[in-house]
Amino acid sequence: MKTRIIECVPNFSEGRDPEKIRKITDAITAVKGVRLLDVDPGEATNRTVVTFVGEPEAVVEAAFQGIRRAAELIDMRGHHGAHPRMGATDVCPLIPVAGVTLEECAELSRKLAERVADELGIPTYCYEAAARRPERKNLAVCREGEYEALPKKMGDPEKGPDFGNRPFDEAAARTGATTIGARDFLIAVNFNLNTTSTRRANAIAFDVREKGRPVREGGKLTGKPLKDEQGRPIMQPGTLPGTKAIGWYIDEYGIAQVSMNITDIARVPLHVAFDEVCRAARERGLRVTGTEIVGLVPKRTLIDAGKYFLHKQQRSAGIPDEEIIRIAVKSMGLDELKPFDAKEKVIEYLVAGDDSSRKLVDLTARGLAEETASESPAPGGGSISAYMGALGAALGTMVANLTAHKAAYDDRWEEFSDIAEKGQALMERLLHLVDEDTAAFNRIMAVFGMPKSTDAEKAARAEAMEAATLYATEVPLHTMEASFEVFPIVRAMAEYGNPNSVTDAGVGTLAARAAVRGAFLNVKINAAGLKDRAKAEALIARGAEIAAAAALEEETILKIVESKI
């Protein structure tokens, strides 16, 4: 199952009262499934920026509870601070991290904005990707005039909020208005330079940032800045859209840096920004010696970077994520100034580290065998079938990687790298099913603990059992489908891969066939418990189809293997 994580960064108009801030964050963390990553209060701004992550449903609920609590604790009629603000919860963006699109976050934001207006009576604007009007993509447009302008804006069909628009009243006077939206993840990064010159660092920043630099008379740095007919400076855009950057000197490190915010990581991934800053520095006689990530990054940022640098080396990217991230760290010098610990910098790892539930796939090989051999009925044949499928995929991936790295296959390295990446993804999918099969068994066991005294309870119990049994039948069917996808990989490796590893492809074939057959046994025995016989027969028929096709694949591939031994 795909990991789905979003980040929420609400800004609350309270930065001076620790007790109020604590009560707001307590309301957020009371929602199961969210992890609080950061609380950053500012006294001068009288504003606190809170960062938390989790699965979308949990994060949206936590955002709602935080907004509710802030409305109870913060009275905007007496609020003053250095930062622009419009409401007790001033702005609340949802940000996709993993397994969720920006469009999905935008839809979640609109629903949250409507709920906040309906249930809490707080006027809400939608901004960035969630904007319902083009001009409101810009937060500044939504917040124009700040809190003090709300009496004139509210009730106006053009300037009023998207939800909860009404004449300004006492409730709105207390809470102000909230702006809710969706934006992509922002990466804050500093590129280290082999210089102490802030001026030269600034020059590189102006070369690359989207805004660029002012155009001057004669093209000279000392020339007078040119202006357009409206009196605005004429700018020469930089080479990296969706970025902001300046140069500065850091006493702590004794070097100058290009400090950059990448606001559109879809258009400008981190590794692209790194290469472009390296190019601009080189043209000015300087070098980028390393990179410093400020705050957190999504896992995909480092995975994409690692694969990019592996591709430049003509090396296979079909390797574990940890190795790909290590390549990214070394390629961009993320560990130049201090050690880089992915578990502390990657959002997905932080969320996973907060999961106290024990997973079978985290056990050692001995641990999994011993756990299976214990008196507990789970893990059982379903989990082991999935694990055999994962081992089959792992063997096919190994042969693809060995082949991609062999000198005789230099002209085909990319072909085998693609196969290895597919095998790696398939292995991960099957490893997930190792735990999913045990979870399905536990779901059935949980039904037996449901009450059954009344007719209503009996009906609810029967419905829950049917749903749990269906799930327990579908999971091994998913194992069959995933394990069957191993065959094209091991077949290609038996036919075209490194001949010294042909028997590894053969063993991978045997593991995949065993996984299909073993999972099919679970499909049949679990389907027998379904009341919906038509559904049960359809699932068994699908399993039989896969099992028959797997038998033919095994026979064909093993003949190829035997012919090459």
Describe the 3D structure.
With 565 residues, the chain is α+β, with helices and mostly antiparallel strands. The chain is built from 19 helices and 13 strands. It has helices at 18-29, 56-73, 102-120, 139-142, 150-153, 170-175, 198-208, 270-283, 299-312, 321-332, 342-345, 347-353, 365-373, 381-404, 413-447, 455-484, 486-496, 502-527, 533-564; strands at 5-8, 11-12, 34-42, 47-54, 89-98, 124-128, 178-182, 187-193, 213-214, 235-236, 243-250, 255-262, 288-294. Strands 1, 2, 3, 4, 5, 6 and 7 form a seven-stranded mixed β-sheet that branches. A four-stranded antiparallel β-sheet has the order 11-12-8-13. Strands 9-10 form a two-stranded antiparallel ribbon. The longest helix has 35 residues, at 413-447. The chain is flat. The model has no long low-confidence stretch (mean pLDDT 93).
